[in-house]
Amino acid sequence: MPRGISMRSSLRSRDSSSTSTGVDPRERVKDCCRKLVAFMCTQVGVGGLVVGYAIVGAFGFISIESQVNQTVCVQDDTRREYANELWLRTASNQSVNVFNQTAFYVVSNSILQRYQENITGRKQQKLNCNGLAPQDVWTFPAALMFCLSVFTMIGYGSLVPKTQWGKGATVIYAVLGIPLYVLYFLNMGKVFAQTFKWLYTQLHECTGQRKPGQRIIVPSTACLWVIFGYIIVGSIIFAEWEGWDYLDSTYFCVTSLCKIGMGDLVPGWSHSTEDSQTKLIINFVYMLLGMGLIAMCYNLMKEEVYVKARELKEQLNQVMDTIHYKLITCCKSEPTD
Amino acid sequence: METDRTSRSSVSWQRGSYRGRSGRRRKRKRKPWGERIADWIRTLIAFLFSNVGIVCLVVGYTIAGAFLFIYIEGKISLDVAGDVIKLRNSTAADLWELTSKENVFSEKLWKEKVRNILEDYQTTIVSSIKNGYNGMKETKWTFAGAFLYSLTVITTIGYGNICPKTKWGKVATIVYAIIGMPLFLLYLSNIGDILARSFKWTYARCCLCKCRRRPYDAASARASEISNDPAAKRDRWPQIVSTYGEEIDTSSLNVEETLPRDDDNGEVNGSDGDDEDDDDESDSYDPQHVTVPLTLCLAIMVGYIWGGAFLFSTWEDWNMLDGSYFCFVSLSTIGFGDIVPGEEIYSGHAFDLSFIMCSMYLMLGKFYIYVYDASPFIICM
What we know:
The structure holds 2 protein chains of 2 kinds.
Chain A: H1 2-21, H2 25-66, H3 75-91, H4 101-125, H5 134-137, H6 140-151, H7 164-207, H8 220-242, H9 246-257, H10 274-336
Helix pairs in contact in A: 2-6, 2-7, 3-4, 6-10, 7-10, 8-9, 8-10
Chain B: H1 2-27, H2 32-101, H3 107-130, H4 143-154, H5 167-207, H6 215-223, H7 236-258, H8 264-289, H9 294-316, H10 320-331, H11 343-346, H12 353-380
Helix pairs in contact in B: 1-2, 1-7, 1-8, 2-3, 2-4, 2-5, 2-7, 5-12, 7-8, 9-10, 9-12
């Protein structure tokens, strides 16, 4: 990969130098345009494919998951039931004296405990007890985020298919989508890496530090700073929107970009208003761009890390060898002496 | 990765040769055969150690993470559970207050007020669930639970069925993930490489044996001079080791006979180069000539997923679809966390079979994914 990049950049530089000395500017512009179109077609094509795949998947999952009429439990009803029960068991019950405090405590405490277990169990099973039907949960942006979380392997898990068909469709969707995503990842990484390299070179030229023949390697610290800045921007955005504190939103950004995807914090998932839908869309864009940035860093840092790792390994080997040699000579000298 | 491996193996070889020679000096006249076997074993151990070391590192890192998270998160969950019990008592007291002071004989009024109290109670409980209360008195952060949590973090599965609730837990998760993921990738590339190679080798042995004679056979023919039995060929690593062993023997014998004792460093390097060539030859041979067909890889993947589905469906009362859905979601590192095996893992009975099997399944499964990953890339390159 790095060899390819360097070759391409060298080719391009030779190209530009030859055209600058040679033919008329119109040809050059045409050439540039042609290159640009080809470039857009290949790279943006993949991006468009990914987005299109996500949209198709979103519609598919909406249609699959909305078919089922799930029993929607409403917390209100349960609360009324338990209040009723409390009344029956305490105030209207003859055996429980209303003036006997301990008896009242025992009965009401047991009822409350059952109530609490009921609520806890529902929360644990992630049943939707907010009175929302599947049609309301599977809005388009939510389904889009679900698709994204499937094929980027983040897997938030805050919205999951409940039906058999939905599960099967998820598996197939992931099987097809993950290679596509990997393609996107590699492509975007290349594009971003080239752009970043170009920017970096331009910066160098502006400051005048660059000598003409020098090949510039982007240092890995620069990549790390870019990622760091991206995470900080994301955490500020999400913190402002969601009212999270900054630690929470940083945690969200890092776990999302690392593809861990705990799913305990997801922006705009709790309530499906118009506002939260735009948030989900922006989250979608943020994630896709972030993956591209990570791919860029991967691309740029690979070479350097590889070289450094080899150096380290060689040094380590040398040290080990010398230690070994010393040890062996020690051992050798011992029995003979 | 190729050069990595060659350099490592050459180093391990070199080490073996040093040791082997010193061993020979000591007991050369006694046992040439036992010596040779010892040499092989030593090389094998050196080889194992380089990989086993990484495995140990990852496992140790996960265990350390488990203790860290238990230390950070364990206390707070217990506190929350205590708070919930207090809350229940206070709500019962409220109810008593209501009944003793208000009019008990108007059912409607009474129920209205009780409903209000219950609503407050419910909102508090929901918020405490968000803070980590899970309905049980004991915490989810047992050793097994925390171990699985660390594992899901560094493998980037991230089920999210248990997640840190405290500030320090979140910070620790971020740092832990940033350090752990490269480590796990290293581990994966190491072990996956071995697995892919051995799989390829097995495939080559099983399926392509009769097609044509390959350069590798020519290389290994030398090795089979010592061990002529075909059973030795069945395993690749002993075979390679035996090749090395043979060369160690011959080269170092030459050194002994031709050179004075102090010059052995240079000679070792020379034979090292020779050995590297050999290794390169077999390495370059492997990916170029044996391409395991994609369908076979896919079949193995599907088989692995089905096996896991069968295993989990017998344990957990899931149906086959749920089981394979879980396996797929886990192995592709999506990790929704809506279906997670072993509630008993989190409820405190550490180290039962289910837990061990679950973590083994995840770790091994990643290798299979790696094998599956690696083969198309090798074909591409």
